[in-house]
Specification:
The longest helix has 22 residues, at about 1-25. The chain has one helix and 14 strands, in the order αββββββββββββββ. It has one helix at about 1-25, and strands at about 30-45, 55-75, 75-90, 105-115, 125-135, 135-140, 145, 150-165, 170-185, 190-210, 215-230, 245-255, 260-270, 280-290. A hairpin with a 4-residue loop joins strand 10 (about 190-210) and strand 11. By secondary structure, the protein is mainly beta. It has a twelve-stranded antiparallel β-barrel with strand order 1-2-3-4-5-8-9-10-11-12-13-14. Strands 6-7 form a two-stranded antiparallel ribbon. The protein has one domain: Outer membrane phospholipase (ompla), Chain C (Beta Barrel), CATH 2.40.230.
C-alpha cells in the first residue's frame, strides 16, 4: 500500500496549495452554468380483444446534463460535470394482457469535480474526484441495491486546455489515479455484504464540447485507464486487470423547436475484467427538453 500512501500525500499537498490559492485574490467572476434536462416517453397498448400477437409497452427515459465552472481566483478554477440518467420499460403480456414488473433500461450517475491551478504554464496541476454509479442495481431477482457498484476515482496530474473559444472547448489531462470500487451483494448465507477493491495507475481524460449552431451541439469524453496495482491481483485468474480500460462517450443534440430536442448518445466500453469484447450502447431519443441555464 506504499503507492496509496504516496498518492494520498500528493493529494493533501495539492489540496493545501489549492486552498491557499483560492483564498488569495478572489475574483468576482460569475459561475458559468449549463444545465438541461429531458424526458422521453413511448407508449402503446392493445385491448383484450386485439389479435395479432402484439404486446403493449411503455418506455420512458429521463436525462440531466450539467457543467458548472467558476474562476475562484486568478490561479484557481473549479469545474463540475454531472450526468444523470434513468429509464424503465413496462411490457404487457401477449396472452393475459397483464403488465409485467418494469425493467430498467437506462441508469447512470456520473459526477466529476475538478480543481485546476491556472498558472499559465504548459500544463496546469489538477486534482479530480469522480463518482460513477447507478441509481438501482437490480441484478439479483429478489433484492435491490442502490448506488451499487460505486466507482470512486481520485486523480492528480497536469491538464492542458488545447482550445477555448466561446462555448467550444477541448481539455485534456493526464495523471496518476486511485480507484475504489464498492459493490453490494449477498453472501453464501443470504446476508448482505459489501466488497471493496482498490487499484491505481495512469489515467487520461479528454473532454470536447462544440456548439455547431444555435440548435446543434456535440460533446465527447474519452477516458483511458491503465492499472499498475490491483488489490486482488493475488487472487486473479489472469492479468486482464492490466489491460487499458476505455470509456468513450458521444452526444449529439439538435433542437427541433423550443422545448423539443433530438439526441443521439453512444458509448463504447472496453474492460477485459468484465468481458474480452467491447461493449457498445446507442440511444436515439426525441423528447421534451428544458434548459434551466
Amino acid at each position: 500500500m506504499k503507492i496509496v500512501k504516496t498518492f494520498e500525500t500528493i493529494c493533501v499537498v495539492l489540496i493545501l496549495m489549492v486552498s491557499r490559492q483560492g483564498l488569495n485574490g478572489a475574483q468576482a467572476d460569475p459561475w458559468s452554468r449549463s444545465l438541461d434536462t429531458d424526458f422521453t416517453l413511448t407508449q402503446n397498448s392493445y385491448s383484450d380483444s386485439w389479435t395479432g400477437g402484439e404486446a403493449g409497452n411503455i418506455s420512458w427515459v429521463w436525462n440531466a446534463n450539467g457543467v458548472f465552472e467558476k474562476q475562484i481566483s486568478r490561479t484557481f478554477k473549479f469545474r463540475n460535470a454531472t450526468k444523470l440518467s434513468f429509464g424503465q420499460t413496462h411490457i404487457q403480456d401477449k396472452t393475459t394482457k397483464n403488465w409485467a414488473k418494469p425493467e430498467k433500461s437506462t441508469d447512470l450517475i456520473d459526477i466529476e469535480n475538478l480543481g485546476l491551478l491556472t498558472l499559465d504554464s504548459f500544463a496546469d496541476p489538477f486534482l479530480g474526484v469522480r463518482l460513477e454509479s447507478q441509481f438501482l442495481d437490480a441484478s439479483l431477482p429478489d433484492k435491490n441495491f442502490y448506488l451499487s457498484p460505486a466507482k470512486i476515482t481520485e486523480s492528480v496530474g497536469g491538464a492542458k486546455q488545447i482550445y477555448k473559444a466561446d462555448k467550444n472547448e477541448l481539455l485534456t489531462r493526464f495523471g496518476f489515479a486511485l480507484r475504489q470500487i464498492i459493490t453490494q451483494g449477498i453472501d453464501s448465507l443470504g446476508n448482505d455484504e459489501t466488497a471493496t477493491t482498490n487499484d491505481s495507475g495512469f489515467e487520461s481524460v479528454t473532454d470536447l464540447k462544440l456548439t455547431l449552431s444555435e440548435t446543434l451541439s456535440f460533446t465527447s469524453k474519452l477516458s483511458l485507464y491503465k492499472a499498475l496495482y490491483f488489490s486482488e491481483s493475488d487472487r486473479a485468474e489472469n492479468d486482464n486487470w492490466k489491460a487499458v480500460d476505455i470509456n468513450w462517450e458521444n452526444r449529439v443534440s439538435a433542437s427541433v423547436v423550443k422545448y423539443v430536442t433530438v439526441s443521439l448518445y453512444t458509448q463504447l466500453l472496453f474492460d477485459k475484467e468484465i468481458t474480452l469484447k467491447g461493449r457498445f450502447k446507442q440511444t436515439l431519443a426525441l423528447g421534451l427538453t428544458y434548459r434551466m441555464f
